[in-house]
Design a protein that fits this description.
InterPro entries: 4pyrrol_syn_uPrphyn_synt_sf, 4pyrrol_synth_uPrphyn_synth
Radius of gyration: 20 Å
Organism: Taylorella equigenitalis 14/56
GO biological process, one term: tetrapyrrole biosynthetic process
Pfam family, one: HEM4
CATH architecture of the largest domain: 3-Layer(aba) Sandwich
Oligomer: single chain
Domain Tetrapyrrole biosynthesis uroporphyrinogen III synthase: 29-223
Strand order of the largest sheet: 3-8-7-4-5-6
Length: 256
């Protein structure tokens, strides 16, 4: 039996379970590594006057997209018609399109899904003193903002949420039934914070033998640096990439 443990938020995990379940025979486990808590709305009196002149909005995550379009409708109404949206991956781009389909969305090509890849694609397009809004959680993406400021652009930011570690009880983890040596295990991590929060809890629950044989899938190479187990691969969360890695590790054993 293949156990596929998904560690993003439950909504995203359901989407991935539906996608992967169409071609993989597995038990899917919804195990969010993080809890997202909205922050109190900041005072935006001065900032509102800047909105009509914005050139770009950078959404750091799908959570940032949802909170901005759902809770800041007054700001959305003030956006200029030529605004361009930025993000680091196709998943966040899809979430932006859910709210507005008529605006241009810029994100990295290929497997790279980080701020550096976004800057490489964006830099040739930038006019001097462009105006940016970064919609983000507490912390993160400092390099992106620092680069923009150093190169003469004007940057505003709104922190709309914070990440909290999702703490699981021993009894809950026991009910997942992930302790059979004859089974195969795949853990999918989508953020550095998620690895740091959830992996120590998993390590207390699972044996070292199971962890050493498990496959860890991550969406960025930097996550591989903090997972100290032999089987760790960087993938994109799409059908082709997932089939390729499952074939590599398990042959066609679990493919429908």
């Amino acid at each position: 039996m293949l156990h596929l443990v998904l560690t993003s938020n439950s909504s995203r995990n359901r989407e991935l379970s539906s996608l992967f379940g169409s071609f993989i025979n597995a038990n899917f486990h919804d195990l969010p590594a993080l809890q997202i808590e909205k922050l109190p709305r900041p005072k935006l009196t001065f900032f509102k006057s800047q909105l009509p002149n914005l050139n770009y909005i950078f959404f750091v995550s799908r959570n940032a997209v949802d909170i901005f379009f759902q809770d800041f409708e007054d700001l959305v109404a003030l956006l200029p018609s030529n605004i361009k949206f930025l993000c680091v991956g196709s998943s966040t781009a899809e979430q932006i399109r859910h709210y507005c389909q008529s605006f241009e969305i810029i994100f990295p090509d290929g497997n790279a899904q980080d701020s550096q890849a976004l800057l490489q694609k964006l830099s040739p397009l930038l006019a001097y003193k462009a105006k940016f809004l970064i919609v983000k959680g507490e912390g993160g993406r400092g390099e992106f903002q620092d680069f923009l400021v150093r190169t003469g652009h004007e940057v505003f930011e709104i922190c709309v949420y914070k990440r909290l570690c999702h703490k699981y009880t021993d009894s809950f983890l026991h009910e997942l039934n992930l302790k059979h040596l004859d089974d195969d295990y795949v853990f999918v991590f989508t953020s550095t914070e998620g690895v740091k929060c959830l992996l120590p809890q998993i390590e207390k629950f699972l044996t070292k033998e199971i962890l050493r044989k498990s496959l860890f899938l991550v969406i960025h190479d930097r996550l591989r640096e903090i997972i100290e187990y032999p089987h760790c691969e960087t993938i994109q969360l799409n059908k082709a990439s997932f089939i390729e890695v499952i074939k590599h590790y398990f042959n066609k054993k679990y493919l429908l």
